[in-house]
Amino acid sequence: MADAEHTVTTAEPTLAPAERIILALDRPDADAALALAAAVPELRWVKVGLELFTAAGPAVVRELRQRRLRVFLDLKFHDIPATMAGACRSAARLGAELITVHACAGSEALAAAQAAAEEGAAEEGLPPPTLLAVTVLTSWEPDRFRRELAVETPVEAYAGQLAQLAAAAGVTGAVCSPHEVARLRAAHPWPFTLVTPGIRPAGSDRADQRRVMAPAEAVAAGATQLVIGRPISGAADPAAAFAACCAELN
To answer: Which residues are catalytic?
Structure first.
């Protein structure tokens, strides 16, 4: 009976392709970001990162939500427990549904961030957001990672250790490169959320990403959602590029 119950509770629901794709609004100001979002009528999810949030602040998150878009607030909080808790409480009160925190902040900070996010959402009558533990940034190459950070553990194993640390602290999701997603999915079945940047559709430029994968490959490996930026935002027709990414997931 226990096995049957486990199968039921860990079965991932089917998501429409448009629900899986999070468009990175990597623009220098609110007007440009909002124009990009408006250029993709089928868009469901957007990512607000450091550049945009520093320029436009909480107001851009509120405006995106008023436009019925779901927000991934990717500020990668990494600080002492009290500061991380305060930041996550504020982010949750804004209505961000996905919020990144660095797993290497440690278990105490992660637990405090999770509790505060739940409290902040409850204060506004919102469902609790999903915290995503950042494991290893996709810009790191294994040799440089070992050399510059003096971490002898291989990147994939290190990402797994950080994800386990976060899960033990009550965090219910992680960000990882698509190259680590299969390992993490095996260790953390649904409903643990795995969001993967470093997604490059067929024919697109890798730019400054190193550990990349095509959309369908990443989902097959266990990704819940995919962050895609320049292949859509840099296209002459962002709506067509978004549709092409969705088509790769059908």
So the answer is: 76
